[in-house]
Amino acid sequence: MSDSPLIERLRGFTTTIFSEMSQLATRHDAINLGQGFPDTAGPQEVLDTAVHAIRDGANQYPPGHGIPDLRRAVTEHQHRFYGLELDPFSQVMVSAGATEAMTAAILALCEIGDEVIALEPSYDCYAGAVAMAGGVFKQVRLHEPAYTLDVAELEAAISPRTRILIINTPHNPTGHVLTEAELRGIAELAIRHDLIVLTDEVYEHMVFDDHRHIPLATLPGMFERTVTISSAGKTFSVTGWKIGWLSAPAEFIDAIHTTKQNMTYASGTPFQHGVAAGLALPADRFRAIGAGYQQLRDLLAEGLTAAGLKVHPVGGTFFMMADISSLNFDGDGYEFCRQLPERTGVAAIPAQVFYGEPQSAQNLVRFCFGKRPEVLAEAAARLHRW
Ligand code: PMP
Ligand code: GLN
C-alpha cells in the first residue's frame, strides 16, 4: 500500500489553501485577509431569531429539504429581487452551505467521465467535487485585469462529453460581476449544447457601482436547465452557520436530494430560522450590505496601491486581486503568501491555486476586504513596510 490511503483522484485536494493560510495567520498573529469571512456581526434580527429558536426548542432534525419557513423565505427572496416564481416545496432545498449544495449537485448530475467546465480562476471546491464524482474538470479563463469572459473561448472548450457548466457571479476570487452580454452568451451556449448550469451566487448582495447581479435562471430558456445556489454566510455575516440553498426545477431538486441526504441529510435547525428572518429583511437592508462593502473595497484598494501593489477592478464580492510583480519579490505568489504573515503580520491567498496552470497567475494575490476600516488600514500600513 502507498503512504496515503486516500484514493488517487483526490490526492491533489488534501488541505485547502484557506486552512493553510488561516493557520499561518493564527501562528503569527496576523491580520487575516486570506480566508473570506467578515469580522463584524450580521443583522441583529438574524442572530436573535436563531437564539430564540434554540431557546424555543428548535433543536432536532429539520426536514431533509429544510424548514418550510426558510424554503418560503428563499422563494419570496427570489421573487422580490429577481422576479422568479418558485414552488417552495418542490423547487427549493436547504443545504449545509453553498459547498454542500455544489458538491451534492455535482455528485448527483455528473457521470463518471463527464466534463464539467468552470470559469478560471475557480473557487476551489468545484474541482474537488468534480474529482469526487469522477468527472473531468476543465476551465475557461477570465482575462485580467477586468476578468472578462470570451464566450468564443467557452464554446471552444465544450465537447460532446461536456454536461455541466459552473458559473460563479459575482466571482470569487476576481470580484468580476458577469455582464448581461456575458450571461446571454453563456445561456445561448448552454441551450445549444443542452448543458446543465450550476450557478454559484453566494455574493449576490455584494455588488458595487453600477454593476448588477443577474441570475442566469432569469434568462429565457435557462430556468429549466439551471441550479441556482446561494448561502447566508456572506450576506448575513454568518459563515460559521453553513446554511445555503438551491433552487431549480423539481426534477433537479429530487436528484440532488438523493446525494444530499447521504451527506448531511439535514443540518442547522435554529440557524435555518435565523436565515429565514434575514431573507425577509427590507430591500434597503440588503442595499446597505453592498454599500458597506463598496466603501471597504475603496479603502483596501487605496491601501494596497499605497503599498506598491497593482490592484485589479472589483465589481462585487469582498475579494480583490492584486499583482505583486512591482514588489520585486524573489518568488511566486504562493511563496509570498507563505512569508507574508511572519514578515508583515498580514495573511492573503495566492490566486494561482485557483488556476489550472498556476504558473500563468503566479504574481496574483487575493485579499479579502470584509474587515472593519481600522483593520484594513492597519493591514495596509503593515504591507507598506514590506
Ligand atoms: N462559493 C463561493 C464562490 C465561495 O466564495 C464560498 C465561500 N463562501 C462558497 C461557495 C462556500 O459557501 P458556504 O460557506 O456557504 O459553504
Ligand atoms: N469562501 C471562502 C474564501 O474564498 C473560504 C471558505 C473556506 O474556507 N472553505 O475565502
SSE diagram, text form:
Elements: H1 17-27, E1 31-32, H2 44-55, H3 68-82, E2 92-95, H4 97-109, E3 115-120, H5 124-133, E4 136-143, E5 148-149, H6 151-157, E6 162-168, H7 180-192, E7 196-200, E8 226-231, H8 232-235, E9 244-247, H9 250-260, H10 269-279, H11 283-306, E10 310-311, E11 319-323, H12 333-344, E12 346-347, E13 349-350, E14 364-368, H13 373-384
Parallel strand pairs: 1-12, 3-4, 3-6, 6-7, 7-8
Antiparallel strand pairs: 2-9, 4-5, 8-9, 10-11, 11-14, 13-14
Helix pairs in contact: 1-12, 2-10, 3-10, 4-5, 4-9, 11-13
The structure holds 4'-deoxy-4'-aminopyridoxal-5'-phosphate and glutamine (GLN).
4'-deoxy-4'-aminopyridoxal-5'-phosphate binds at residues 36, 97-99, 123, 168, 172, 200, 202, 231, 233-234, 239, 242, 244.
Task: List the keywords.
alpha/beta; 40% helix; 386 residues; 16% strand; globular; binds 4'-deoxy-4'-aminopyridoxal-5'-phosphate; binds glutamine; 4-stranded antiparallel β-sheet
Q: Could you explain the architecture of this structure?
A:
The chain is an alpha/beta fold and 386 residues long. Helices cover 40% and strands 16% of the residues. It has 13 helices and 14 strands. An 8-stranded mixed beta sheet has the order 2-9-8-7-6-3-4-5, sandwiched between helices. Helix 2 (44-55) packs antiparallel against helix 10, helix 4 (97-109) packs parallel to helix 5 (124-133) and helix 11 runs parallel beside helix 13 (373-384). The termini are far apart. The model has no long low-confidence stretch (mean pLDDT 97). The protein binds 4'-deoxy-4'-aminopyridoxal-5'-phosphate and glutamine (GLN). The site of glutamine has 5 residues, from loops.
